[in-house]
């Protein structure tokens, strides 16, 4: 993958002169705060972490964000091939933009609601199961529900679900850290945030960063 120029401010969605000025200043601040923490990362990985830190205003994400060596390439290839992006909740879906493929979420699907009720599992887990049944093949983005992450891992390892990569950043004190550690110990390309931190802003930032990176590569 060729080295890219990441000095522009499109990573923050800026589209006007004032927006570019704000974005450039924000990027300077972010880089000054985390420069030493991301020295060992590739340019693409740095770009993702910078966007996460900017989106959360929390430099600690530079310490707790972990990226598997194959995550960037697998994710960019999936985006360039317009594979579907599956999200755990609709809020994450709403935040992913400028994607030429489909961003899908089944958490409000009637079948997901029924499965959740019948099997006493979360709707987020049921939604991942529906995606598998529909032949999903693409990027999974989990920002809130560790049960969705656990279900996806189970389906990949035991049922052959095809997932190009996972943005696994569920937030919370029950199951979130454990689900991310479980993902870390699989062969699935991943980005995670260790511990309880994560959430919609982190998931959206990582997804939009990958989409942006894919568009920069011929």
Walk me through the topology:
Layout: H1 17-34, H2 43-56, H3 61-64, E1 65-67, H4 71-80, E2 84-87, H5 90-95, E3 103-104, H6 110-119, H7 123-133, E4 137-142, H8 146-159, E5 162-168, H9 176-184, E6 190-193, H10 200-216
Parallel strand pairs: 2-3, 2-4, 4-5, 5-6
Antiparallel strand pairs: 1-6
Give a structural overview.
- The chain is α/β, with parallel strands linked by helices and 218 residues long.
- The protein has a single domain (59-216), classed as Rossmann fold, CATH 3.40.50.10230.
- The chain is 52% helix and 12% strand.
- The protein contains 10 helices and 6 strands.
- The protein has helices at 17-34, 43-56, 61-64, 71-80, 90-95, 110-119, 123-133, 146-159, 176-184, 200-216; strands at residues 65-67, 84-87, 103-104, 137-142, 162-168, 190-193.
- The chain has a 6-stranded mixed beta sheet with strand order 1-6-5-4-2-3, with helices on both faces.
- It is globular.
- The model is unreliable at 1-11 (pLDDT under 50).
